[in-house]
Design goal:
Chain lengths: 279, 486
């Protein structure tokens, strides 16, 4: 892993890597202060991150709270950008299963293509693996056709062994994606955690033939970190995983850093933060 | 519905990221470094040193002969008296100065190391050069504390020490040898390997810049004959050699009956043992690091992979898959994992032993990758179905070739690991701490790594058992070979 952190990504590889990273972004806003206006602006940015650089693709999805799914749905309509919604009493998951399932159903009914659920750390840390699995199975059912991303919240798990174990549980239970973090804990997608999850995912996919995707989230705020994530994917799983169908990055501020690095690589000059719109 | 813009690209490869060699200033020709000055060799002989990745000549380098050796010994003997008479703290200051100058010229040293030897720039930049400087820093600190490193015994320097280093870690091995020798008050005559003399000659320039008293360090580039003359020279008090077991035996025979100190760091066929309770992905990384580091040109390389049968299939599959991701090519490219084989001679040796492995019935798999047209290359290779009798399980290949064997029980692993004429290093992969210590205590190996491999540090002693040699380098233990105690 320390070797992979040293990969030197320059010139065309950097441009291509940045475009790839943008196409994999779940552009996210999960604030108490989110409003329809804010979500619409963010959605516009996800659909067309840089109007002056048409070669830069749309982001993969916008990710919002359930109450704003409808707004996001309308804002990205026809663009190919998906709407993802966190659900299941995000970020703590500390509600009854019925409430969490209802949360999921409402988000799907409002038009979410993808659901980001949290596992019950209450059950997992108490050793009740069966309950963790059963809950994921039920949420998956509630999702219907929507894709299910299962958040492990790795910062709250005690060790890499547990990260691997919880990844396996989530995949066995039917997760379409496994995801590191809510973005609300102290640390998010560290390279070590991402590598462990990618390895678990590789082993699971090789064993069962079922393809599961991966989404690091939380803490990925620079282009360097984002490109490093792509290196990890490329060198553990291979090029066929470098697609938004199989790999996503959950973040928001990283988009502007990617755009800034893109401009810098093209022009040789660094831009100012004010040169890029926040939403 | 608008058509979604193109969102996926299925391949993504790294652009070339070569380290620029523009700022490296090498001379066209290098002589011998004696008495603080470069001079033409008295032998009148020289030979070009070649970049093994391109076969381009880099510089013409002297081949020191017997007269050069005799002259260097005479100069060193005079210099040593004054050097040993200096307050130890002052000697330490010179070593600190050398260490700092190595850091200042680190980038240049790394590039030259890679050009001359073929190793990836990532390794010379991140391992060889920083570790070499760290050794000087470490022994600079010891200079005025030597008594504490040898249990308080009375001690004095040997005098003039002859040091011969190999081509796999040219500058690092020079640092391992020179730093403790100088700290203890010896004068040193160093002979770098004939295929990789350049960084030792840059180190000579650094000694000049550090204003090290002339004659304390001499660098005599040359070939095997130069080394043979050096160890047989009248007036040397100690020999330190790192290299092949065959040459080590020759040196020991030549010194028989003489009051000359000797330490040898020779070959190895080190066992890397993976138990079923290991973290397998982590172990696979360690196997790769153990054998493909520096193209396997590592005396302690984990070339005998011992895997518990219950996980053998899994380890084999994962290792083979991991090997596909290794990037072989231009050593100066920052993304290269496997560089060039050091010389045509070494390539032949690797090819011979690999052919023997196939003939004797082991299963060979070599990764498919583009091999550059010029230069010496060998792609990472995995042998399975290997039996302990096969030559590839017994002899040192010194290349990117790993031989995988299996075992059933802990006792069998220990027995197989020790069933070797060598005893340099070993690796143990298990998540059970108690097991790791229990096994380590029973391994006849100078270094045992637990859940890591090829991990070096100036504070840790390094050296072998049996035909891997004797004497220790590094840490406090590395002081002992450079002093006489009474």
């Amino acid at each position: 892993m320390s070797t992979l952190a040293k990969r030197s990504i320059k010139t065309e590889a950097k441009l291509q890597g940045i475009r790839l990273a943008v196409s994999m972004l779940d552009l996210t806003t999960l604030e108490g202060a989110d409003t329809p206006g804010k979500v619409r602006q963010l959605a516009a940015k996800a659909v067309c991150p840089s109007p002056t650089r048409p070669e830069i693709p749309s982001c993969a999805a916008v990710c919002v709270y359930p109450a704003l799914v409808g707004v996001a749905r309308d804002a990205v309509a026809g663009s190919g950008v998906h709407v993802a919604s966190v659900a299941t009493a995000f970020p703590s998951g500390q509600s009854s299963l019925e409430v969490r399932l209802q949360d999921t159903r409402e988000a799907v009914a409002a038009g979410a293509d993808e659901i980001d659920m949290v596992i019950s750390r209450q059950a997992y840390l108490a050793g009740d693996d069966a309950r963790v699995i059963e809950e994921i199975v039920q949420v998956k059912e509630a999702c219907g056709d929507a894709h299910l991303k299962v958040i492990l919240e790795t910062a709250e798990l005690p060790s890499y062994d547990h990260v691997r174990h919880a990844s396996m549980l989530a995949m066995e239970a039917g997760a379409d994606f496994i995801k590191t973090s809510t973005g609300k804990a102290k640390v998010g997608a560290t390279p070590g955690v991402v590598l462990v999850m990618l390895e678990a995912l590789r082993d699971y996919t090789q064993r069962t033939g079922r393809v599961v995707g991966m989404k690091p989230a939380g803490g990925v705020s620079t282009s360097k970190q984002a490109l490093h994530m792509l290196v990890l994917v490329k060198e553990t799983l291979g090029d066929e995983w470098l697609t938004p169908d199989r790999f996503r990055i959950g973040a928001s501020s990283v988009l502007n850093d990617l755009l800034m690095q893109y401009e810098k690589t093209q022009t040789g000059r660094y831009g100012r933060a004010e040169d890029f719109s926040k939403e | 519905m608008a058509v979604a813009p193109e969102r996926t690209r299925l391949t993504w490869d790294y652009s070339p990221a070569p380290e620029s060699a523009d700022h490296v200033r090498l001379r066209d020709a290098y002589g011998v470094f004696v008495g603080g000055e470069f001079a033409d060799p008295r032998s009148g002989k020289s030979a070009p040193t070649v970049n093994p990745a391109t076969e381009a000549k880099i510089a013409k380098v002297a081949i020191a002969g017997e007269e050069d050796v005799a002259h260097a010994v005479k100069v060193a003997r005079e210099a040593q008296r004054k050097w040993a008479a200096l307050p130890a703290l002052e000697r330490g200051k010179y070593l600190f100065r050398i260490a700092r100058l190595m850091q200042e010229r680190a980038r240049e040293l790394a590039i030259v190391e890679t050009m001359d030897g073929g190793k990836p720039i990532r390794e010379s930049r991140d391992i060889d050069i920083p570790l070499a400087a760290a050794h000087f820093f470490h022994y600079a600190g010891w200079a005025d504390k030597i008594g504490y490193g040898i249990a308080g015994r009375e001690h004095r320097p040997h005098g003039v020490v002859a040091q011969i280093v190999p081509w796999n870690f040219p500058l690092l091995m020079a640092a391992w040898k020179l730093a403790p020798a100088l700290a203890c008050g010896n004068a040193a005559i160093l002979k770098p390997a004939d295929t990789t003399p350049l960084t030792a000659l840059l180190l000579a320039e650094i000694c000049q810049e550090a204003e090290l008293p002339p004659g304390v360090v001499s660098i005599l580039p040359g070939n095997g004959a130069t080394g043979a003359a050096l160890v047989r020279a009248e007036g040397i008090d100690k020999v330190a050699f790192t290299g092949s077991t065959a040459v080590g035996k020759d040196i020991q025979a030549a010194l028989a009956g003489r009051d000359v100190g000797l330490t040898l760091e020779l070959g190895g066929k080190s066992a890397n043992i993976v138990f079923e309770d290991a973290s397998i992905d982590q172990a696979v990384e360690g196997i790769v690091q153990g054998i493909f580091f520096n193209q396997g040109h590592v005396c302690c390389a984990g070339s005998r992979l011992l895997v518990q049968e219950s996980v053998a299939e899994q380890v084999e599959a994962k290792l083979w898959e991991r090997m596909q991701k290794l990037r072989l090519g231009d050593p100066l490219d920052k993304n290269t994992d496997v560089g060039a084989v050091n010389s045509g001679e070494q390539l032949t040796r690797i090819e011979t032993l690999v052919a023997a492995g196939e003939d004797e019935g082991a299963t060979r798999r070599t990764i498919a990758c583009d091999i550059p047209e010029r230069g010496h290359w060998f792609a990472p290779t995995l042998f399975t179905e290997v039996s302990p009798v096969h030559r590839i399980a017994v002899e040192e290949i010194f290349g990117p070739v790993v031989s995988m064997l299996t075992f059933r029980t802990q006792a069998e692993a220990i027995e197989k690991a020790n069933n070797s004429k060598y005893g340099l290093a070993a690796g143990i992969w298990t998540d059970k701490g108690g097991k790791a210590f229990e096994v380590a205590a029973q391994l006849k190996a100078g270094v045992v790594w637990q859940n890591t491999y090829n991990h070096f540090d100036p504070t840790a002693a390094f050296g072998g058992y049996k035909e891997s040699g004797f004497g220790r380098e590094g840490g406090a233990a590395g002081l002992r070979p450079y002093v006489r105690v009474s």
